[in-house]
Amino acid sequence: MKCGGRVVHIAPTAYRPALVRRKWVVEKRIRKRPKMPAREIPAGDCWRGHGDPSPYIPGLPEDVPRFRSVGVLFGQMACCTRCELAPGRTQVVPGVGPRRAKLMLIGEGPGANEDREGRPFVGRGGRLLDALLEEAGVNRSEAFVTNTVACRPPGNRTPKPAEVRAHAPWLEEQIRLVAPEVIVTLGRSALTWFLPREKITQVHGTAQKLERHGREFWLLPTFHPAAALRNDELRPLMQEDLRKLRSLLEA
């Protein structure tokens, strides 16, 4: 530029302090901009069963995480669509019982009554189970009761292996959180999840020590109450099997 007839050259660095100052002000404003809170998905913002207006999205969740409590686990499980049983349900049927129980009972899957009421073993099979436990000196209120699948299979059929595998992470989380000392498997589906090669007719009533999630527990297989309702010969076998419960719980 000209100044009093002379040409004065201004070094580019003369502008840098102002540029740096403006840049610093902009960055400071960006850093001070308040963060928007993460969007929380409402508990009702998922499809839960027949009559739910929310859209049905199959295959959710892709992965089942670890949970801090059984209550939070069940809240997420209510939205599960991981297997083909989900579209036919009224609702997911979670486990019931003490959140830390010495005894866990694992059945097969919900029936019509359970699907309607949202609790396991509430029909004839449940009443028989209560009577058998009482005969064995055990109150059902002491036990945590759940199933290998939480959605009703069509026509009360046996759950398919793929359906059991899809629900398995939910079941394993219940086992980890409840931390039972004794698990009673009711029927073939529950038994084969723990011992895939065993047959219920051969191992019922035989307690075995197993380990899950870094903890040991007794596994006591017996028949499903629904099978005993169809076949009277199974009831005395179940009575004999469950008589071993009290000694296992006190071991």
Describe this structure in words.
This protein is 37% helix and 13% strand. It contains ten helices and seven strands. Mean pLDDT is 87; it is low at 7-43. The strands form two sheets. Strands 4-3-5-7-6 form a five-stranded mixed sheet. The chain has a two-stranded antiparallel ribbon with strand order 1-2. The chain has one domain (70-249): Uracil-DNA Glycosylase, subunit E (3-Layer(aba) Sandwich). With 251 residues, it is of the alpha/beta class. The longest helix is centred in the last third of the chain and has 18 residues, at 161-178. It starts with a strand and ends with a helix. A hairpin with a 2-residue loop joins strand 1 (2-3) and strand 2.
Task: State the main characteristics.
alpha/beta, Uracil-DNA Glycosylase, subunit E, 5-stranded mixed sheet, two-stranded antiparallel sheet, 7 strands, 37% helix
SSE inventory with pairings:
Layout: E1 2-3, E2 6-7, H1 16-32, H2 70-77, E3 103-107, H3 112-117, H4 124-135, E4 143-147, H5 161-178, E5 182-186, H6 188-194, H7 200-203, E6 208-212, E7 215-222, H8 225-230, H9 234-242, H10 245-249
Parallel strand pairs: 3-4, 3-5, 5-7
Antiparallel strand pairs: 1-2, 6-7
Strand order of the largest sheet: 4-3-5-7-6
Query: Which architecture would the CATH scheme give at its second level?
Result: 3-Layer(aba) Sandwich
**What would you call the structural class?**
alpha/beta
- End-to-end distance: 98 Å
Helix-strand string: EEHHEHHEHEHHEEHHH
Main beta sheet strand tally, sense and closure:
5 strands, mixed
Q: What is the overall pLDDT average?
A: 87
Beta content: 5-15%
